[in-house]
Amino acid sequence: MTHTIALNFEDGVTRFIDINPGETVADASYRQGINIPLDCRDGACGACKCQAESGVYDLGEEYIEDALSEDEAAQGYVLTCQMRVESDCVVRVPASSAVCKAPQGSYEAAISQVRQLSASTIALSIRGESLSRLAFLPGQYVNLKVPGTEQTRAYSFSSLQKGGEVSFLIRNVPGGLMSSFLSNLAKAGDSLELTGPLGSFYLREIKRPLLLLAGGTGLAPFTAMLEKIADEGSEHPVHLVYGVTHDHDLVEMERLADFAARIPNFTFSACVASPDSAYPQKGYVTQHIEPTHLNDGEVDIYLCGPPPMVEAVSQFIREQGIEPANFYYEKFAASA
Known about the structure:
With 336 residues, this protein is of the alpha/beta class. The chain contains seven helices and 18 strands. The chain has helices spanning 25-31, 70-74, 177-184, 220-232, 253-262, 291-294, 307-319; strands at 3-9, 14-19, 49-54, 57-58, 77-79, 84-85, 89-93, 105-116, 121-127, 141-145, 152-156, 165-171, 191-198, 210-215, 238-244, 266-272, 300-305, 326-331. The strands form four sheets. The chain has a six-stranded antiparallel beta sheet with strand order 11-10-13-8-9-12.
């Protein structure tokens, strides 16, 4: 049985390869034209050392201690010249995609639907035959080229790829290049070009409770993550706090409720910062993080929002005197 390996390079580019039974990750990579760091192929030099972030694999006993210590192996480090997998895996490669001759993938698609969810948010779905070959880790993003220009905008996937279709949540920025196109010109069938996937903000293997913190359209990567969790399940609690500025910024609430119905241990809350809000829960995301969500530090925190929100959450966690097991975040700012 073949498995799929996601190779995540240090510049954020991710490439996916297929691996055959008994084949090493290094051999599978080179067979598919990706030159990950490699020297001896015998587990003696350590040049191919990477970190496996998820999956089941075997390293055998052929490598030497100088190439990979017991402590490193316990932390998930691997020698790709010795690594044979027993499941799909995610492997972080400490080199750039350019060095490894693994450029970004390019795809062509057509708009299948554009919906104005609110005054501040646009939902975009695109479809294409080439997208059926697009693989990404939930939480990652692509660069979409603005039609009629040479400029691109980065957007996180808000769904998994199904039947050659993917979706995005896009902030409607007054005067924004992509926002203006989507609001005034876009129609079903219009062509779009995209490159990726990109980004080191993605769902890792769930080993402990998760706290997901979303600000505005920073909700997008989390709906993709929740699709993955709904498909595969989770033994650990998952809680999402979703914060916006105004009442009309709240979107996809029915979708979140659907996730709560499908995922037994998923809960969520939303809050609105504006003092004029009619929504029951007011204030900022940090005001709705409870001690149980932090679980005395035995928690993985994922945060996606504008820079001030990222800084405020980081400060809040420090003030609690808690160091989470992992803290992954992605900042974004709107482009005019």
